[in-house]
Design a protein that fits this description.
The protein has five helices and five strands. It is an alpha/beta fold and 174 residues long. The chain has a single domain, classed as 2-Layer Sandwich (Nucleotidyltransferase, domain 5), CATH 3.30.420. It has a five-stranded mixed beta sheet. A hairpin with a 4-residue loop joins strand 1 and strand 2. Helix 1 packs parallel to helix 2 and helix 4 packs across helix 5. The radius of gyration is 16 Å and the shape is globular.
């Protein structure tokens, strides 16, 4: 009688944005990676854009789970609030909506919010580095060539989750 192989556990990284959301699903070793960028049109109403982003996230997660892969945790890059205004308010709405839907639709997936400065420091050693330096650091460290800076951040979130558990603070968990 042969042992049943456990399906590999996956980590989901989400770099949420109304214009270009980066989404990466990776196993612990990062030898199986799915990267996707979700874009929306600025001319569309914000409610339509938020719903489209969530729908794409949900489709990926449901198809992954249907193929017997277990998604262990999800990391979402926190907000880097640079000012007040409609754009910041809409981005906060997107974050809140995705967080609520994740806990409702996928209650067994642990969700953690990683502050942008903590993520950047983990990847590049500097909490205030530019996007191109993040992409270069990600490539040098894990040989991962991201399609864009959004998927780079999302991939980096999966690596933060799988290899830096002690640094995740209690208050970051949802």
């Amino acid at each position: 009688m042969s042992k049943k192989r456990k399906p590999p556990k996956y980590y989901l990284g989400l770099d949420l944005s109304l214009t270009s959301t980066g989404m990466v699903l990776a196993n612990k070793k990062a030898d199986r990676v799915i990267q996707q960028t979700i874009t929306t049109l600025p001319k569309d109403r914000v409610e339509v854009r938020i719903n489209h982003i969530w729908t794409q996230i949900e489709i990926l997660l449901k198809s992954t789970m249907a193929s017997k892969h277990k998604i262990k945790r999800c990391a979402i890059e926190g907000l880097a609030v640079r000012g007040a205004g409609q754009r910041t308010l809409q981005l906060a709405g997107l974050h809140y909506f995705v967080r609520i839907r994740m806990t409702q639709v996928f209650p067994k997936v642990g969700v953690v919010i990683i502050p942008p400065t903590s993520l950047k420091k983990y990847i590049s050693g500097n909490g205030r580095c530019e996007k191109d330096k993040m992409m270069l650091s990600c490539y040098k460290r894990w040989n991962f060539e991201a399609d864009n800076s959004d998927t780079c951040d999302a991939f980096s979130l999966t690596r933060f989750l799988s290899g830096n558990k002690k640094a995740i603070k209690k208050e970051w968990w949802i």
